[in-house]
Amino acid sequence: MRTIRTSIEILEHVPISTWFGVGGCADAMATPTSLDELRACRDIDDKLVVLGEGANLLVCDEGIDRLVVRLSSPAFTQCAFHDNGIVSVGSGVTLPKLINLCERRGLAGIEGLAGFPASIGGAIRMNAGGAFGEIGDAVHSVTLVCKDNTLRTLHKDDIAFSYRETRFGNDAIFDDAVVMEVQLKLTPDDPNYIKQRKLDAMEYKKRTQPLSADSAGCCFKNPTLPHDIDSIGSKGLRVSAGMLIDRACLKGTEIRSARVSEHHANFICSSKDGCARDIIELMDLCQRAVHETFGVLLQREVVVWERSA
Question: In this predicted structure, what is the pLDDT of residue 63?
């Protein structure tokens, strides 16, 4: 790779690390060290994308031509604890680190998210959650760098948290906004109780998911049934995507280097010498089979980065 010199250092042809362990490079990547440098990134490419922990991401084999930004410098990885239970957290802080810090300080509210290997910014973007709650439940406010490079803070009441999705408003200014800082409202509690709830959440994930495999967690969102389905549920019920994939007889199905997990059918696993196109093809197969079998259209939970058309 070589370095492009602008107002911020840009690296070319940088490998992107994801939990799948496959996929292409970033044509250009930056690691800003300040708000001004982050704004400079927006000036370079107003459609930039932010790379967190890569735990819910698949990059196409051809790589991505949008500017990739990592918020891993100290400017974006600070935590501040306030007396009223408010915790200010930089977007680049990892969720496991934050959970452990809050546990030691006796602050409860996010320990149910143990085992999610996300950055705070990424967790907010997808309203990360599961059987033990969602991060949106603990949010007090979110500070964003908007499309016009202004800094805006939205209170929780102005943010629409829903199942695996967060909307910061209908104004186009929030399109592609970058999460810079999050304020969480947590509750004082006994650190021992918090730790036990954290361990319970981690044990549940270990028991129900193939955590040792090269995958990016659940590939699809759990759908809401558009109509009654015998032995599945009635219209309006949210059901397990993994169960639908399993009942479509796809557990263990392989397309070259990609395989539907036998342990949990909503996980697609990849071999280290595989490629992203195999995973994408297998996800497409799962969507077609579930739609043909049940009339249910699965939506991807895994984010796929592709080159511009």
Answer: 97
Environment class of 45 (CB within 10 Å of its CB; exposed 0-12, middle 13-18, buried 19+) = middle
User: Which position has the token pair 């509750």?
Assistant: 187
Q: Pairing relation of β-strands 139-145 and 187-188?
A: unpaired
* Chain centroid, CA 255 distance in Å: 25
Rounded-to-integer distance, Cα 62 and Cα 17, Å: 14
119-134: pLDDT as tens digits: 999 999 999 998 899 9
What does R_g of the chain's alpha carbons equal in angstroms?
A: 20
Q: Which of 25, 218, 269, 286 is catalytic?
A: 218
> Strand 68-70 vs strand 86-90: parallel, antiparallel, or unpaired?
unpaired
Helix axes 95-104, 191-208, angle to 10 degrees: 150
DSSP letter string, 70-128: E--SGGGS-EEE-TTSEEEEETTSBHHHHHHHHHHTTEESSGGGTT---BHHHHHHTT-
Q: Specify whether 288 is catalytic.
A: no
Q: Quick: pLDDT tens for 7-44.
A: 789 999 999 999 899 999 999 999 999 999 999 999 99
State yes or no: is 41 an active-site residue: no
Whether 203 sits among the annotated catalytic residues: the reply is no
Residues 164, 197, 247, 259: which is the catalytic one?
A: 164
Reported residue count of the chain is 309
Q: How many CB atoms lie within 10 A of CB 238?
A: 12
Interatomic CA distance for residues 269 and 288, integer angstroms: 19
